[in-house]
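Section 5: illustrative case.
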């Protein structure tokens, strides 16, 4: 990497070398039977350069020919992409507890045994089809640049998801788990899956209309994507955010506080620096319903005459391979502050409504504007504080800038989900369309 950087510095005004290695192991069960065992190792290096105010980029899976990589970056300058920012000089970073060596020693056999244990128990208590996937990830990242930055990190993640599918259906009750080391799925999580599955086995056909809807962590991606978009510096620059001029104004209910904290190493995947080598720090986006901040990478901070918040990541809305991507503004450790009501207490407060366990089409609707229209997958129907069955062929629709103003309660527990850790949130006056 050092030799590549020295070569690039002789040709370009500014240069950055990004290196990543991933080791991933996975075990998958279908219908409570072992379906697949997989192991992957991926690595690569990308070169991002700036010359005469223009951006160049190239990457390789195997750094055999440095001259060719430099030439490819030089050729990419013909695209004429503007880059009037500097790469950062990052020296001091917090030390995070994000690596557990025991995960490197974890065998596929142990992963299979844990999945089989959960599958067997779920199968003995339900009549549904059982699916379970377990994964380990060990990643190493290093970034060096022409300003003198040299930062690196190594982390481990043990994660997985499992569910009980309703007979003849493609949906069911799912739960996600995530840790820095191997941990057995707790009995409480498994019991909750069984209880909810049993309570929702009967199909009901309620009337639609405005009612209470509880978004569970598995369905929070519907709201999260719209928060990501509305508070992004890219959206501010492109004038697509409906809240661009609402800093210090109340946009949600006072029960809603949204923050991004990459340094919180209680959870796996913590980061001391982003994919541009900028030091990470906690950022509050919405506090007690009031909009406090937007988030920036180097590029859009420069365009908007602001400072980067350390949110430049090599990702897309659908994930992607970081080696092949240039950094963009992204929230990767977002949470909504927990409340003081338990899940069961929140259910008891519902006179009539739906528990949105999962969604179909979370990407549907006008995301920049905050609109959503999703299928329930599944939706658990509640009357007089009790789950009486599940709804099929129903839709939930609205706009997050209205929905989050009608927050009834926020649960007291955070759960892992796409993009961060989320509580369950109960909203009122949400539009639900059913067969009736």
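Designed sequence:
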């Amino acid at each position: 990497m050092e030799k590549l950087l020295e070569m690039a510095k002789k040709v370009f005004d500014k240069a950055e070398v990004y290196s990543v290695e991933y080791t991933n192991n996975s075990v998958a069960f279908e219908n409570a039977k072992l379906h697949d065992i997989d192991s992957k190792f991926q690595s690569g290096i990308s070169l991002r350069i700036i010359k005469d105010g223009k951006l160049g980029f190239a990457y390789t899976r195997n750094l055999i020919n440095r001259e060719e990589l430099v030439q490819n970056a030089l050729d990419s300058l013909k695209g004429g992409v503007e880059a009037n920012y500097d790469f950062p000089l990052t020296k001091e970073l917090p030390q995070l507890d994000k690596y557990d060596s025991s995960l490197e020693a974890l065998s596929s056999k142990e992963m299979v045994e844990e999945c089989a244990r959960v599958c067997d128990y779920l199968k003995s208590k339900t009549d549904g089809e059982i699916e379970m996937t377990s994964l380990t990830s060990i990643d190493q990242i290093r970034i060096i640049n022409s300003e003198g930055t040299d930062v690196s990190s190594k982390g481990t993640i043990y994660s997985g998801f499992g569910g009980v599918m309703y007979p003849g259906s493609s949906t069911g009750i799912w739960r996600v788990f995530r840790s820095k080391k191997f941990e057995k799925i707790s009995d409480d999580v498994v019991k909750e899956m069984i209880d909810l599955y049993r309570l929702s086995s009967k199909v009901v056909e309620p009337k639609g209309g405005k009612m209470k809807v509880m978004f569970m962590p598995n369905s929070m991606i519907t709201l999260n994507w719209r928060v990501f978009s509305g508070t992004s510096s890219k959206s501010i620059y492109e004038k697509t955010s409906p809240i661009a001029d609402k800093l210090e104004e109340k946009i949600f209910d006072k029960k809603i506080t949204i923050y991004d904290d990459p340094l919180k190493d209680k959870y796996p995947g913590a980061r001391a620096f982003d994919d541009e080598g900028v030091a990470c720090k906690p950022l509050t986006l919405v506090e007690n319903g009031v909009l406090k901040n937007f988030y920036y990478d180097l590029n859009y901070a420069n365009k908007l005459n602001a400072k980067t918040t350390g949110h430049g990541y090599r990702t897309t809305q659908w994930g992607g391979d970081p080696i092949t991507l240039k950094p963009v503004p992204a929230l990767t450790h977002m949470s909504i502050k927990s409340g003081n009501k338990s899940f069961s207490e929140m259910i008891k407060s519902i006179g009539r409504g739906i528990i949105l366990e999962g969604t179909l089409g979370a990407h549907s609707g006008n995301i920049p504007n905050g609109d959503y229209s999703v299928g329930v997958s599944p939706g658990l129907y509640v009357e007089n504080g009790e789950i009486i069955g599940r709804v099929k062929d129903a839709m939930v629709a609205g706009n997050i800038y209205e929905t989050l103003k009608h927050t009834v309660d926020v649960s007291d527990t955070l759960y892992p989900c796409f993009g961060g850790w989320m509580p369950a949130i109960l909203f009122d006056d949400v539009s639900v369309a059913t067969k009736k």
